[in-house]
Amino acid sequence: MHIAAVDHMANNGDSFLHHALPFTKVIMSFLFLAALIFSNQIHKAVFLLVIPVAFILLSGVNAREIFHLALYSIVFSLLFALIQLQQSWTAAVMVMIKALGAALNMLLLIATTPYTDIFAVFSHVLPGVIIDLFIFTYRSLFILIDKLEDMVKSVRLRGGLHPMRLLFNLKNAAGALGVMTIHAFDMSERLYRIYSLRGYNGKIPITREWGPLRWVDILLLLFSLIVLTGVLIPWKI
Amino acid sequence: MSHIHLPDGVIPPAWWILGFVLCFALLWLFTGRIKGDELRRKIPFAGVIAALMLIFMSVPLGFLPVHLSLAVLCGILAGPGLSFIAIFVVNTILALMGHGGFTAIGINTLLMGGEAIAGYYLFKILSGRLSCTFSAILSNITALLLSTALMLILVASTAGLSEVLPFHDHGQNHGEEVHFAESKQEEELPENYDEHKAAEAEGVKFLSITGWSAVIMIILSGIFIESLLTGLIVNFFSKVRPDFLDIVHPT
Questions:
Q1: Which end of chain A is more exposed for a tag (fewer CB within 10 A), N or C?
Q2: Which range is least confidently modeled, A22-31, A178-187, B66-75?
């Protein structure tokens, strides 16, 4: 599961992007995303693709892992690119560049910002219940991944997976996922008891880091604003 | 399974804004229903369901280029409201991982959430008359076909229906085709040319599962495998922990 690897990058990185405020990085990502969505010329879209790539390389995160994850966006956009291909090849390429650029932007954000900080920024616009849900999901995910890995190992050791027997594999996979679900339900009960004891009433307190703005924040915000403006203005040179 | 996650930049802003508005309206409706002690119990539960969905999605289906989502199973286990909220969380986390567009979170949630809600109600109706396993399989197939059809309609309406149809040909190509046909007639045929054999050869399809038929085959295979797996998991619960299915028919 790549979430653990990305989480490691976000929490252990030491680049200028890691030191920027979460708020700055979320705003920057959304400005780049807006620029990408509204760009209608291929050279502008390519430029917007180069920016996150450059930032990924500069931030010292595991670029290989990030590019691997970004490839999924190409796979998902392929169907839509094929549809656009019937109009023109540039429309098809634009669909793929936009999907890849947007995915790289989001990956840059999560590879340089811990999830909890991103959720803290989202808490300004989303209800507290949803933010709590993000936190519970995130917490449960890592516990369940460990359980899944152990379970897959034991299924393999007991000969529960056979490369050529689809129905046999499906039956065992269903049993394993069923056991996993039972574990998950027990875990949710435990979480309920723990959080009830701690006085949880539907809002987990989270720290929101707002400022003060540093030079890196100001520069990043300015740069992203310039990029968005530059993309939206129809240049005639 | 239905979520061939829509990426960013594919859908016009009007559509994804509408998707967000509808999605937030439903979220507001469903979260508003959870109050008091229920909140303390149901929020961790929904979090675990969302985490489970993320894990189910990481289960590969061998040679098929699709993965499980088990949204219907989550709908059956958590009910329509909680599963919709969990699906929103799942789609947001996936969008942050570059798996589906951030602007498409609303639409992706509506599609997958619709799958979970439809699956829940279908299972509720069917399980009163049929066995749990069979009901789960049937409700899963129906919900997945419904959401896949919805997604295709959405893509068709954004790209233009004629662009999505498999055997569509553009007007601009017609001229080329006519020209090509005329020039073909003008070409001199070889002396041993047999019209009957040529017609037979044209009828032979060397690779019949290509293009759109391949896409449809992949989608149908994915639906079949996911439905079978959902049925088997529900069968497992009916034997080991039948109380998990109580939400559908509360005692």
A1: C
A2: B66-75
Both tokens of residue B183?
């020039």
pLDDT in tens, A96-133: 898 899 999 999 999 999 888 898 888 888 888 888 88
The total domain count for chain A is: 2
Interchain contact A117–B (C-beta under 8 A): no
User: Does a structural domain hold residue A202?
Assistant: no
Domain ranges, residue A151: 128-197
Q: Which domain holds residue B51?
A: 13-165+216-245
In chain A, what residues touch B235 (CB-CB under 8 Å)?
A: 174
Q: Which residue has the higher pLDDT, A2 or B91?
A: B91
Predicted local distance difference test score (pLDDT) of residue B250: 57
Domain at B154, CATH number: 1.10.1760.20
> DSSP for chain B?
----PPPTTSS-HHHHHHHHHHHHHHHHHHHHH--THHHHHHHHHHHHHHHHHHHHHT-EETTEEEE---HHHHHHHH-HHHHHHHHHHHHHHHHHTTSS-STTHHHHHHHHHHHHHHHHHHHHHHTTTS-HHHHHHHHHHHHHHHHHHHHHHHHHHHH-HHHHSTT---HHHHHHHHHHHHHHHHSPPPTT--HHHHHHHHH--S--S-HHHHHHHHHHHHHHHHHHHHHHHHHHHHHH-GGGGTTTS--
Q: Tokens in use for A99?
A: 């999907």
Number of structural domains chain B divides into: 1
Tell me the chain A residues in contact with residue B170 when contact means C-beta distances shorter than 8 Å.
Answer: 86
Residue with tokens 């152990």: A150
The reply to whether A171 touches chain B by the CB within 8 Å rule is yes
Give the tokens for residue A41: 């010329």
B8 lies in a domain? no
- Quick one: pLDDT band at residue B110, thresholds 50, 70, 90? very high
Using an 8 Å CB-CB cutoff, list chain B residues near A95: 7, 9-10
- In terms of residues, how long is chain B? 251
DSSP 8-state symbol, A173? H
Backbone angles phi, psi at B65, to 5 degrees: -80, 40
Q: Write down the ipTM of this complex.
A: 0.85
The CA distance from B111 to A30, in Å, is: 24
